[in-house]
Amino acid sequence: SSTVRLLTSSQVITSVVSVIKELIENSLDAGSSSIEVRLESHGLDRIEVVDNGCGVTAEDVAFMAQSHFTSKISGVSDLDSLATYGFRGEALGSLCAVSDVNVTTKTGKDDVAMTYSMDRKGCVLNAKPSHLPKGTTVSACHLFKNLPVRRQFYSNKKKLREETKRVEDLVKQFAVIHPDVRFVLRADKSVVWQKSAVCSHYQALLHVWGSSVMAQLLHIQEKNQDLLVEIEMFLPKADAAIVQMKTEQGFYFVNHRPVFMKDVEKVLKQAYSAVTSDDRVKKISYAFLHVQVSPKEIDVNLEPNKTNVLLHKKDEINEWISQLIQSSVFPRPE
Ligand code: ADP
Ligand code: MG
């Protein structure tokens, strides 16, 4: 029923940020090299994500916003080799349940783009030709207009501004972990933040943090053959002045997914506070950490919004990271 649909939707689509997260992930899964996020009235009037990816084929259009439709995996066993963000087939359908969705799309084989207006059930209401180039544009208008309580939350100007800040942080996370993709964030037509395509995580971070910060960071890259894990980190040098700063500027990823890593943050805090010998180090301000493991070694199936990823060998990996920080940031004098 439509009530059940509204309830399940509200687990995936909980906020403006969650909409942007799902749409950016779809654009990345589609192989886009340019992703533009547009907000009108902090996303409440309109959220739009424009990409230049593979587009949705004419055969898939009718299904794309149906519950559990995904073009990305065909069975549970595929989860062991998951290389995409999406696999549940829930986001687009959920978005249709809580906003007015239009999808404009053109594949490499189509002569012309088509714009599809979707109804609450994720069915195509009507289709008309459009002039956009190859790629997909999803726009969601009047988010939560049928969920008065959720809409009420956004009547507060301060909360709206905070939400837009979170959108900016999220766009930066994806931009940092996908250096080769161009990202633009616009709010009511003006550019809030943008990054052109660059070649490395270093260059992407340079764009976000600036050269004086980068000069104080160490670049660490290691593999652990036993745990089958790889890590790339940018961390403050032992004597870096910026360690004392307390604003939160960390980027944490597992297999390209932005995640919370409370344990790793703790490991970092311990390592740095041990040398500073006072408790000024509340948070490691500038940290980039990307853990890559075989898809078999993680469980991304915990929650619909997937910000918590379960590493099967979490304790061993944290221990390894801790030793790595000790030996590369704080090596013992010979
Ligand atoms: P999932 O990402 O889990 O497959 P979604 O509900 O997010 O589920 O998307 C449903 C389907 O719609 C995708 O599997 C894909 O085929 C198609 N799709 C959605 N967004 C895009 C996009 N930006 N480019 C190409 N295809 C898309
Ligand atoms: Mg998706």
Structure description:
- Belongs to the DNA mismatch repair MutL/HexB family.
- It comes from Capitella teleta (Polychaete worm).
- This protein is an alpha+beta fold.
- It has two domains: 2-195, Heat Shock Protein 90 (2-Layer Sandwich); 209-329, Ribosomal Protein S5, domain 2.
- It has ten helices and 15 strands.
- The strands form three sheets. An eight-stranded mixed beta sheet has the order 5-4-3-6-2-1-7-8, covered by helices on one side.
- A hairpin with a 2-residue loop joins strand 7 and strand 8.
- Helix 1 (2-12) packs across helix 4 (91-98), helix 2 (16-29) runs parallel beside helix 6 and helix 6 packs antiparallel against helix 7 (201-209).
- The longest helix is centred in the middle third of the chain and has 21 residues, at 157-177.
- The radius of gyration is 21 Å and the shape is globular.
- The N and C termini lie far apart (70 Å).
- The mean pLDDT is 88.
- Adenosine-5'-diphosphate binds next to helix 2 and helix 4.
